[in-house]
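Bumping my old thread because nobody answered last time. Still need a sequence for this structure:
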């Protein structure tokens, strides 16, 4: 199975060097032209608050699956010091609230004179929906500055001119870039504010966020945290969900999974299996979270073992989380990432994963059994046409 998993990873999951180079050039133009030139030029508040882009998501984490070109760019904003922002504990785990304590500067600052209507409610709380609408407006204005031919806007890059359009998606504005044929790059521009530990909400003790507290005093942004314009799910309106911002520790997560041998190839295999089994309600971040817990529970030597051994161990661990119907948020285990998924759905997912694990284990003389649960029918034909004998019976689910 070792050679087979390596072949699947290299042939059907890994991104080619040419694709990496091309996509990086396109992302470079998105940041340079649309964000740092156009968006900065059309809005003085954005220009004043914008600090940097954090390149998030599976691609930059090394957990990217080939041909799914989805990229996350967190546009990190800094709250004006004059606002005296007060971050407060939320009743919803993994979320916080932000209230502007000193609103007097809003009446005197020429840059922020419209800040209250743009971002705040009547009680001066930062509102996710308002921030998203503001970001969408800025993207639209910056977008309109791109070259337009026959009603279609184009992004000019070092590797070509590509049609581009955008839509609103969750806590982000998503850019859609048509590269060639059926290939498209989607780039999420995510509204985020960045803070250092001095703004950590009073009332939130080191627990349950003790894992993040251990990073304090470190360098290269590891003592920072983000808040993202993502409301808690399935919350009644009387809780004012739009006041609650999702905490994010992307910098620390990337550090945790760095230089862990087989971790990233195994993570990509699990994501490939998730897609093949059509477990669409399991987000990629949930699989990444399982890996974060495994980093905590396994020593470094574990990740240096063979790919097949680490893969099977990780698959069994992942299956157990699904069977238990709980994947805790790594930074605060009071929050169940899959708590919103119907119990019967999770039970079906668990049964399916356990079936796959058993099939792999009872077929030591058929190491290619695993590919049935990783590859599509078309990919299976390609796989077996490249050197391996197709088994007499190959069940496609």
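Sorry it took so long. Here it is:
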């Amino acid at each position: 199975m070792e050679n087979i998993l390596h072949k699947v990873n290299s042939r059907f999951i890994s991104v080619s060097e040419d694709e990496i180079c091309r996509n990086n050039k396109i992302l470079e133009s998105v940041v340079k032209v649309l964000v740092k030139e156009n968006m900065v030029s059309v809005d003085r508040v954005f220009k004043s608050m914008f600090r940097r882009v954090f390149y998030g998501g599976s691609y930059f984490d090394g957990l990217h699956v080939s041909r799914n070109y989805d990229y996350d760019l967190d546009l990190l904003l800094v709250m004006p010091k004059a606002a005296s922002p007060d971050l407060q504990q939320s009743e919803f785990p993994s979320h916080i609230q932000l209230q502007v304590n000193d609103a007097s500067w809003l009446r005197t600052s020429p840059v922020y004179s419209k800040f209250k209507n743009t971002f705040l409610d009547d009680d001066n709380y930062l509102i996710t929906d308002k921030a998203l609408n503001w970001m969408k407006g800025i993207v639209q204005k910056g977008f309109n500055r791109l070259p337009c031919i026959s009603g279609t806007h184009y992004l000019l890059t070092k590797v070509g001119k590509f049609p581009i359009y955008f839509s609103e998606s969750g806590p982000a504005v998503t850019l859609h870039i048509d590269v060639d044929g059926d290939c498209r790059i989607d780039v999420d521009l995510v509204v985020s504010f960045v803070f250092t530990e001095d703004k950590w909400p009073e009332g939130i003790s080191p627990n349950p966020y003790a894992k993040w507290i251990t990073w304090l005093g470190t360098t290269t942004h590891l003592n920072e945290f983000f808040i993202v314009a993502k409301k808690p799910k399935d919350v009644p309106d009387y809780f004012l969900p739009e006041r609650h911002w999702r905490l994010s520790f992307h910098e620390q997560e990337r550090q945790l999974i760095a230089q862990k041998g087989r971790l990233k190839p195994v993570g990509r295999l699990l994501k490939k299996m998730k897609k093949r089994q059509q477990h669409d309600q399991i987000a990629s971040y949930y699989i990444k979270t399982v890996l974060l817990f495994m980093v905590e529970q396994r020593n470094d030597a574990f990740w240096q073992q063979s790919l097949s051994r680490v893969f099977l161990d990780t698959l069994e661990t992942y299956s157990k989380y699904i069977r238990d119907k709980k994947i805790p948020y790594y930074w605060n285990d009071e929050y169940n990432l899959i708590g919103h998924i119907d119990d019967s759905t999770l039970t079906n997912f668990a049964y399916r994963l356990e079936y796959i694990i058993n099939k792999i284990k009872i077929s030591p003389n058929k190491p290619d059994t695993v590919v049935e649960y990783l590859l599509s029918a078309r990919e299976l034909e390609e796989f077996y046409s490249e050197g391996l004998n197709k088994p007499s019976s190959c069940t496609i689910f």
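Confidence is low (pLDDT under 50) at residues 389-397. Let me know if any region looks off to you.
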